[in-house]
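Hey team,

Filing this mostly as a record. A colleague (T.K.) asked me to run one chain through the structure pipeline before their review meeting, and I want the input and output archived in the tracker in case anyone asks later how it was produced. No errors, nothing strange. Just documentation.

Input sequence:
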Amino acid sequence: MENKETGTPPLIPSREGGLQLTLLLTTLSSAFGSAFQYGYNIAVVNTPHKVFKSFYNETYFERHATFMDEKLMLPLWSCTVSMFPLGGLLGSLIVGLLVDRCGRKGTLLINNIFAIIPAILMGVSKVAKAFELIMFSRVVLGVCAGISYSALPMYLGELAPKNLRGMLGTMTEVFVIFGVFLAQIFSLQAILGNPAALRRLRGHADLEAELEDMRAEARAEHAEGHLSVLRLCALRSLRYQLLSIIVLMAGQQLSGINAINYYADTIYTSAGVEASDSQYVTVGAGMVNIVMTVISAVLVERLGRRPLLLAGYGICGSACLVLTAVILFQNRVPELSYLGIICVFAYIVGHSIGPSPVPSVVRTEIFLQSSRRAAFMVDGAVHWFTNFIVGFLFPSIQEAIGAYSFIIFAGICLLTAIYIYLVIPETKGKTFVEINRIFAKKNGVEIPEEKKEETIAAGPPVPSPAKETSF
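Output structure:
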């Protein structure tokens, strides 16, 4: 019988299984068809932004017999960039309904519609002489990305054995970064459940260990019941889990990564790089990004989640501070332009080893299935709303305060790192239920199973009025 939640059969092998060929192919195909498109559409408007703006200007001239001034072009281009995360916000709000109705795999398949339609619309926008089609297509592509960014980690996190959960969990971000990199390459001016299916994912016949883990998770879920977003926000037993994913997602975006992705060429130019050469620097940064994200996928199961997050935010914050000084003083000391490029690359290294990939792992691990869908809706909404804020406001902030805008990002890196150090536990090598027990202590509640065991040990209970558990 197929599992409706994941679109896969219920036979799950040992949590300590190896990476089998079927599991590898499932991971690669699902990630390439979803997370890859998210990354590609983040970066695809960066390097050829002059081409887009020229098309906007030509279309505007044909309509009004005059060209746009910069006061009109800046908000119009900011809207074009920020329509993508706005669509992502919409996608994150409907993903819960889709995974309920269609399962994880079905949702990923249906989501392809939101990639095909805007591709067609953008293709005809030039012929139709309507730059509005590009803006609308960016919204629909954002919906596609918003759905995949929530549904894919759920799917992979529930397929993966415990000892590979971290590595497979980072595949969402690996393929996002790969999409960014490929978009940078293509943007260069020089280039233009049948039964036993999950058994094959692991390749093990001994299912008992993982089945027992799943039974324990099922018992906890039965006690908790399936949650809506409103109930999730109201439950004391999930308070720190919910706060943690909000901090991780907001920190990931507000730390400045998409400011660099969206406006990398502008940053390189302001750091002294010739405009004709900045596109190649962007491609080099993309290579560093994808290599470091793949390295993080390996390290996350060796070093753990917390060390990578803390180290990543430390590097990012430091790079932002130095980049601020470089931009302020490069006119007096031209040689500092090279240090500016190093700062951008250092920032990308820091973000790639922790803040970018690791939250995709942690957000799957700290919630049980019963609350995971509602949690991912909140998580996705925060991710895309903050993405939208950065994409829409960063050009205006940069124009208003210049280099000092990166001090804001440094401060956010510091605050996020402090929260991670104080609140988020290490989840490496732990089952979902074990992680749930850690957070239960932080939230000051008892797990119903443990209450039941204590009651049995103490003898027959004294009759009392029925009372709903805090969990």
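Quick notes for T.K.: The mean pLDDT is 78. The chain is about 75% helix and 0% strand.
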